Amino acid sequence: MITRVLKVSDSDPFTKEDLRAIGAAAEVICHGGLVGFRTETVYGLGGNALDATASARIYAAKGRPSDNPLIAHVCDMAMVEEITEEIPETGKKLAETFWPGPMTLIFKKNDRVPLETTGGLQTVAVRMPSDRQAAELIRMAGVPIAAPSANTSGRPSPTRAEHVYQDLNGKIEMILDGGQTGIGLESTIVDVTGEVPMLLRPGAITMEMLREAVGEVDIDPAITGPMNPAVHPKAPGMKYRHYAPKADLTLVEGETEKVIARICALAAEKMAAGKKVGIICTDETKHRFPLGDVVSIGKRDSEESVAHNLYAVLREFDDSGAEFIYSEGFPEDHLGQAIMNRLNKAAGYHIEKV
Ligand code: TXA
Ligand code: MG
């Protein structure tokens, strides 16, 4: 299959060419095809969420286990009502506060949503993206769009159209190249089917923001520590060792001077043994590492910049063939909770405290 790549700009209003490209992508989706498109978090691999065959094709293209449910992307509340059984009060409040935006809510599904889309579950994950390209695509398609992150299963999520192309060229009909994504980490997932809302995956809508909006919010224990085989994460996707870079990644955490010294020592040791070493640091510390392939992930005082660059940096190291990567750690509050959740998973919870 030839994968067509069409450019889309951010002009407001969209240019004629933009609308033609988004319209062509909507056509593909309405005919059961698959399209890679930008959202404010990461690129999505979209198909008609109401079409069981399209969902099956999404799993096949990603090489993803079919028990890992997809997120249905909508453009308005009417579309949410079309696919859900009920919208509980906390769900309403969270939707009003954070939609459109980087938050996914779990609701009870109705019969219009095939089990192929929900990985066999009676619940459906729903997100109303704020990205204008994504919103226009859903509006033109006129159906909810099922979209996991547009990467091959097990690779870092794509934050640029080129990442989608690397993973899915020849497997999907089209990619809308809209440039880089803003946030860079997948949406916050909150299950609102129970009495107390539960955070299933941290993201740019932080725990602090959720609690301010609705009061009590629980955390799925699977988020915070290494996966205990007895604990089943409520978001089935969180059980896989996602976001895994090809190299062996170690996080070094502690006081900055000690972290720098330890990373330098580890890098020197591996390089003396002839290994290819990558170092993930920050703008503030970059000049302190004399050895290895040193890449700054962003500014220590801007968690947003770190989130924005994280997956692209991991992909860069995959491409450069690094065998060992050492990374500085980050504080775990606010957006740092999502950053450290992804870094911990990428490292397989291989952490050194100094
Ligand atoms: O930001 C995002 O959410 C991106 C963009 C494209 O919107 N999408 C994304 O999809 O990250 P994906 O498929 O990579 O991750 C979806 C996560 C998985 O961990 C999955 O298990 C969980 O959502 N999930 C989906 N439906 C669920 C459900 N009914 N109950 C619990 N977890 C669910
Ligand atoms: Mg994913």
Account of the protein in words:
The protein has 10 helices and 17 strands. The protein is of the alpha/beta class. It folds into 2 domains: 220 residues, Alpha-Beta Complex (DHBP synthase); 106 residues, Rossmann fold, CATH 3.40.50.11030. Strands 1, 2, 3, 4, 5, 6, 7, 8, 9, 10, 11 and 12 form a 12-stranded mixed β-sheet that branches. A 5-stranded parallel β-sheet has the order 15-14-16-13-17, with helices on both faces. Helix 1 crosses helix 5 and helix 9 runs parallel beside helix 10. The protein starts with a strand and ends with a strand. The model has no long low-confidence stretch (mean pLDDT 95). It binds threonylcarbamoyladenylate and magnesium ion. The site of threonylcarbamoyladenylate has 28 residues, from strand 6 and strand 7.
